[in-house]
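FORM 7B - TANDEM STRUCTURE REPORT

SECTION 1: FIRST PROTEIN
SEQUENCE AND TOKENS:
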Amino acid sequence: MMSPTATDRPTILVVDDTPDNLTFISGLLKEQYRVKVANNGEKALTIACSDNPPSLILLDIMMPEMDGYTICQQLKADPQTRGIPVIFLTAKAETEDERQGLALGAVDYITKPVSPPILMARVKTQLDLKSSYDSLKDLLRFREDMVNMLVHDLRNPLTNILLLSEMMLLNEAIAPDKLRKQLNMIHHNGDKLRLLIDDLLIRGKLESSQIELKRELVNIGDLCQAAIADMREVGARKGLRLTLQLPTEACDRDVDPLLFRRVLDNLIANAIKFAPTDSEITMTVDNNNGDRLMVKVADCGPGVKDSLRQHIFEKYEVGTLMKGISQTGLGLAFCKIVVEAHGGSIAVTNNTPSGSVFTVAV
């Protein structure tokens, strides 16, 4: 097996204010890696933020002016350098020191005097982990690109299907009830697919910061009334009662009305999907929470287990978490992205005596 060329080798940044330590550690690493050195925090941050950042940073804690903890904190606060793994090198061996370093985002903690075999083994382990993580990120990015391409390709033929079915429904000559019923089913399901495609496209643009919210002052109560009215017939087919509770005072908020309405539609549709037949779904608007306005959607379904609550808003997760229920796993992820883009939050809690309460705070 050919050894990697100098340009293929990972780069390691060694940060230490003691020249002997820099020489010793650099000597251990240079046979297998490219090495950069810095004797203070400012220089270390400059190298880390350069066009050719290091793959790993070995960082001394006890340094004048800017200690290792501060350097690590600044690295993890910057999106450009957040992903660079940091291993602390220090003579401090107390458990509390180690805890503090790991809490700041370091991946490992090696005490001085440094053992060459231990140093080399841990450096290799962290570089292998970073390589695997980077490969996974590339794979996920490729999947997202493929999904976006597919969604765009689906949009045009779907638009044609919707237009043709709508034109046929408007044609009075198509009299047989059975045929009109089938056309209505085609148009209804096509419209559901169109909404899903739109959600995918909007979510992708929001995630990549390619879309701006078109904010305006909106009465959230009016949006909720419209959402409940439009979904009431869908709920009635399952024997569900959809109710709305509004405050007496105004509940205006600066939101993108189209996107926020889609959030409300998704939450109601989600409640309808999980609610048992002949039960009630309640939407409540509450503006008695300081600067936050709360919109809650409560159902009497199976609820969400505590262990699943941190995952239910992640993309593609709902379909695997909720066994036996037809779900894409995109609706709640869409809600989370849109709500957070507004500076708000979304959460799920238990209903009483059964079911779930999804709460949007804006």
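SECTION 2: SECOND PROTEIN
SEQUENCE AND TOKENS:
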Amino acid sequence: MVDHQLIPRGIDDPATLESMSTVPRHRFVPESLRPYAYEDGPLLIGYEQTISQPYIVACMTQAAEVGPSSTVLEIGTGSGYAAAVLSLIAKEVYTIERIPGLAAEAKERFEALGYHNIHVKVSDGSLGWPEKAPFDAVIVTAGSPIVPKSLLEQLKAGGRMVIPLGDSFSQELVRIRRSLTGKDMQEYLGAVRFVPLIGEEGWHIE
């Protein structure tokens, strides 16, 4: 997976590559789909949600510029795979999931695999986790129509947010580097397609 999917497409951060080589991706997908766990594509994980393809997980992790002292907020726990990848690089990972069943399954996986620096909360991810802010990085694994103000405010100065922005069908992956002067820098990393970010500062369920 690393040699054929990640390195040829520009993933060169050593910590990201090492973590992607270490985390057992097959433990984060339904048993019936485990033969496809390392293929270059998303997979259904239940509740009409997906686990992102390996390259997208690696791309977002690398773009967030996470290090050993970093505290990271992830929005959209899903199966827990991306949080597990982050946990081998960062100091602490705080991850929010709006679907209780997915959150419970992810917590069980973290405990079984020994990822003790991941903290899971069932909540509206678009509002973040203000009690644990500020964060060095925020990674949003769901497409949003706007940059949620709450998430931006929970970033440290110089902190990075990686978020898919666009409509409910397709988005552009964007890295935002926060500046306290009000001139946040945005970089566009490519076209993506994520499930929608449901919440007060994301998409609303009618």
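SECTION 3: OBSERVATIONS ON SECOND PROTEIN
The longest helix spans residues 100-113.
Residues 2-192 form a domain with the Rossmann fold fold (CATH 3.40.50.150).

SECTION 4: SIGNATURE
Preparer initials: ____
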